[in-house]
């Protein structure tokens, strides 16, 4: 029944609240029954929830709830379960070779994830966050490998390092300083540099490149191959693919023949352990440039 003290809208016959704004009056329409039912149900649900679960703050804690549930207990249980599952996976990785790890879908996924994390902590300083490398630091995304790109080769390189004196099994190769040690004359070094540029399809003096071909065969082919294809077993880079560690300009090639630079990478087994090194190897191999055993066999 309308309140006699409040006006009634002449059009709808509904009592007005008395509120008016810019000539518009507010009607006192009741809320929809479905909305009120849902509203009261929410209130009842909230009341029951605060009784069953931790809800009301106290001085040093909160009400525990009739069910005795807590997010901390649930987290600790799941964390323990995950840790036990992780330990089982790590044990399996420790027992298997990199090839066996990569062949197992579950182990491969875990190894790549763990290897990526280890790479970001230990390797990005030299190889870059995207593993693209830089001057003097190899790009790990391409298919150009100094010591071979199979899983086993990558694993051995990471395990023992390169020219790492603290590890007697470290990979070691050393290119002679043809100019500094007066093995070749300056004009001979220039001729070889032009031939090397010609091997990779770069601009070079034809006459000098022809002369350099003979000098290359006598002094360089034993390691780099007759056509400059490289020799992973000796750590000799390929010279025919226009991928350069220290630069491919004529000046840079001459400088490397004159007095070569030799990069150093530590062996990581003492710092990370063999299991982490396996995971790193699987991750690096997964970046896209890793060689398969079939490709190497060819």
From TrEMBL:
Gene name of this polypeptide: ccoP
InterPro entries linked: CcoP_N, CcoP_N_sf, Cyt_c-like_dom, Cyt_c-like_dom_sf, Cyt_C_IC, Cyt_c_oxidase_cbb3_su3, Cytochrome_c_Oxidase_Subunit
Domain Cytochrome c: 110-200, 207-288
Organism, as annotated: Fulvimarina uroteuthidis
Family, similarity comment: Belongs to the CcoP / FixP family.
Coiled coil, from the record: none
Alphabetized PANTHER family for the sequence: CBB3-TYPE CYTOCHROME C OXIDASE SUBUNIT FIXP
Keyword rRNA-binding: no
Entry note: cofactor: Binds 2 heme C groups per subunit.
Record's keyword annotation contains Repeat: yes
Stretches that traverse the bilayer: 34-52
Pathway linked to the protein: Energy metabolism; oxidative phosphorylation
Localization: Cell inner membrane
Name the record gives this protein: Cbb3-type cytochrome c oxidase subunit
Function comment: C-type cytochrome. Part of the cbb3-type cytochrome c oxidase complex. FixP subunit is required for transferring electrons from donor cytochrome c via its heme groups to FixO subunit. From there, electrons are shuttled to the catalytic binuclear center of FixN subunit where oxygen reduction takes place. The complex also functions as a proton pump.
Assembly: Component of the cbb3-type cytochrome c oxidase at least composed of FixN, FixO, FixQ and FixP.
Keywords, comma-separated and alphabetical: Cell inner membrane, Cell membrane, Electron transport, Heme, Hydrogen ion transport, Ion transport, Iron, Membrane, Metal-binding, Oxidoreductase, Repeat, Respiratory chain, Transmembrane, Transmembrane helix, Transport
Superkingdom to which the source organism belongs: Bacteria
Obligatory cofactor(s): heme c
């Amino acid at each position: 029944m309308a309140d006699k003290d409040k006006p009634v809208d002449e059009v709808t016959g509904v009592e007005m609240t008395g509120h008016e704004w810019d000539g518009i009056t507010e009607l006192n329409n009741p809320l929809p029954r479905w909305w009120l039912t849902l509203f009261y149900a929410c209130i009842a649900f909230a009341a029951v929830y605060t009784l069953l679960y931790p809800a009301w703050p106290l001085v040093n804690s909160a009400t525990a709830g009739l069910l005795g549930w807590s997010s901390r207990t649930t987290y600790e249980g799941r964390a323990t379960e995950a840790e036990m599952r992780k330990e089982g996976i790590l044990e399996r990785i420790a027992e298997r070779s990199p090839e066996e790890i990569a062949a197992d879908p579950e182990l491969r996924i875990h190894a790549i994830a763990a290897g990526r994390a280890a790479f970001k902590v230990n390797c990005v300083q030299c190889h870059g966050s995207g593993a693209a490398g830089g001057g003097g630091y190899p790009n790990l995304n391409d298919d150009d490998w100094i010591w071979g790109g199979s899983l086993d080769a990558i694993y051995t390189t990471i395990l023992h390092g390169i020219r790492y004196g603290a590890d007697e099994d470290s990979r070691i190769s050393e290119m002679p300083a043809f100019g500094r040690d007066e093995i070749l004359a300056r004009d001979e070094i220039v001729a070889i540099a032009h031939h090397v540029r010609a091997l990779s399809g770069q601009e070079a003096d034809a006459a000098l490149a022809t002369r350099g071909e003979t000098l290359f065969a006598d002094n360089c082919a034993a390691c780099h191959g007759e056509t400059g294809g490289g020799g992973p077993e000796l750590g000799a880079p390929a010279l025919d693919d226009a991928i350069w560690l220290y630069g491919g300009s004529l000046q840079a090639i001459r400088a490397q023949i004159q007095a070569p630079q030799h990069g150093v990478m530590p062996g990581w087994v003492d710092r990370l352990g063999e299991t982490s090194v396996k995971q790193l190897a699987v991750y690096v191999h997964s970046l896209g440039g890793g060689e398969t055993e079939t490709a190497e066999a060819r």
